[in-house]
Amino acid sequence: MRKKKLKGNFNQTLAPLLFLSPNIIIFGLFIVVPAILGLRMSLYQWSILGEPVFIGLKNFTELFGDSMFWLTLKNTLIYVFLAVPLLLVVSLLLGLLTAHRLPGIGIFRALYYVPAMLSLIIVGISWRWILGEEMGILNYLLKAAGGMPVHWLTTDTMAKLSLVLVTVWATAGFYMVMFIAGLQAIPDDLYAAASIDGANKWQTFFRIILPLLRPTVLVVLVLSTINAFKAFELIFVMTGGGPGYATKFQVQNIYLVAFEQDRMGYAAANSIILLAIIGLLTMIQFRMTRGELAGE
């Protein structure tokens, strides 16, 4: 009996930990440890070549009075609240279109997924070439059709919208795969029962598909929100933060403060605030869906 009990304990606790240990070690070394060091750095006046000087919370108090911090935070929040819902809807629609097991459907899935495999730097360079005001392909086609060129990247509103649309184009395929997995996990018996009860497609979607996809929706929502807050390469390549400061986001501001102004401690304080905002929004998302998931 004792041997059997020990074997059960190993299978239930130690064995899963052994399989998870590589990810736990990597997460600890590259996420937890840098976060702790960043928190420590935020309490110092720290430059790359100089000696760090402890200043306590002075970086944080200065940060809250920094107009550039608030401007970049506002730009980041606008980008997040535009990109994430649109990305959620588009990836779900792509999942619904390609989840069915039909001949040749794999080709369409691959085509939708290809942009997610590309480097965001390459994506940014390509779309900057497409959306260029004078030499851009899209404006050239508009002129050829007798229309007026559009200032895609040189006006505040259009630059923000262009970044949102390119973000959706580049990343929707990644989240589409998650929705396909969630949709294919729904038993066919439920669709058959809904059909027998006379439910139409909209009723089937809102009463069967969407409730059963809530865990997948939560995962996509959390991951896309975190990635939107971390957006840097695409924005840096496409607009460089312009026009003016219209598309200068938090991560770019942290980068510039750290490596151009050589204020590593101040940039670390900004990073800690950004981490706290992301953590708070993630917690809110989990709390908003926890009751619904528990009630299923």
Describe the fold and architecture.
The protein has 296 residues and is mainly α. It folds into two domains: 1-41, no CATH class; 58-294, MetI-like fold (Orthogonal Bundle). Helices cover 76% and strands 1% of the residues. It is built from 13 helices and two strands. A two-stranded antiparallel sheet has the order 1-2. Helix 3 packs antiparallel against helix 10 and helix 10 (214-229) packs antiparallel against helix 13 (264-294). The longest helix has 40 residues, at 2-41. The model is unreliable at 1-6 (pLDDT under 50).
Write the layout of secondary structure elements.
Blueprint: H1 2-41, E1 44-45, E2 53-54, H2 58-64, H3 67-98, H4 105-117, H5 120-131, H6 137-144, H7 156-184, H8 188-196, H9 201-212, H10 214-229, H11 233-238, H12 250-259, H13 264-294
Antiparallel strand pairs: 1-2
Instruction: Give the percentage of residues in beta strands.
Output: under 5%
Number of helices: 13
Mean model confidence by pLDDT: 88
Uncertain regions spanning at least 5 consecutive residues = 1-6
Largest sheet: 2 strands, antiparallel
Regarding CATH, which class of the largest domain?
A: Mainly Alpha
The number of domains: 2
